Amino acid sequence: MPRLLVAPLSSLENVISSHAPSHLVSLLSPEHMIETPRGFEASRHLKLGVNDIVDPAAGPAPPARNHVEALLAFSRGWNAEEPLLIHCWAGISRSMASAFTILCDRLGPGHEIEIARAMRQRAPHAQPNRLLVSHADEALGRSGKMLAALDAMGPPLVVEEGVTTEFPLAGL
C-alpha cells in the first residue's frame, strides 16, 4: 500500500527494519545530521539540515524555500511502491510538515483541510512546522490554504516525542 511513515529519530532503526521503506527523509539540525543508514543508497536518502524554528530570525538554519523544493523533487521521484519514511528529532513538527507537504502535493489542490484533519486523527501529537508549511504553500501555489488547514487542525496533544504514524496516499 502506498504510504508515508513519520517517526522520531529514536524509532528510525525499528521502523526501517519493520516497514522496509524505499526512501528516507531526515530533517535534523545540521550539526546532528545522521549518516545514511545501512541498506539505503545515498540517492534515496534526502538530508535536510534545518532547525525546528518558525521565525527565520530566531536562529541558524531555519526551514527555507529551497528545502521545500528539494523535498518536493525528492518525493516526486518516489514511485510509492514501498513506504517513504520521514523523520526528525521528535516526529512532531518538521517531519509532520514534510508529510503534510507531500500529501498536499500528491492529492492536489482542494484537499488541504481533509489532509490536515486526517493528520490530526492519525497523529494527535502532530504540530507541523508553520514556516516549512508556509514555504510549501507558496511553492505549491495554494494561496494560504495549507496554513488555514493547519489552523483547522486544532491544538496538538503535547508530548515530548511522537509515535510512528502511517499516512496512506489514498483513503485518508
Shape: globular
Please report the distance between the alpha carbons of the first and last residues. Answer: 12 Å
| Assigned CATH superfamily | Protein tyrosine phosphatase superfamily
- The secondary-structure element order is EHEEHEHHHHE
Give the number of domains: 1
Percentage of residues assigned to helices: 25-40%
Provide the spatial order of strands within the biggest beta sheet.
3-2-4-1-5
- Determine Rg (CA atoms, Å): 14 Å
Number of strands: 5
Largest sheet: 5 strands, mixed
Low-confidence stretches: none
| CATH third-tier fold name | Protein-Tyrosine Phosphatase, Chain A
Using the coordinates above, name the CATH class: Alpha Beta
Oligomer: single chain
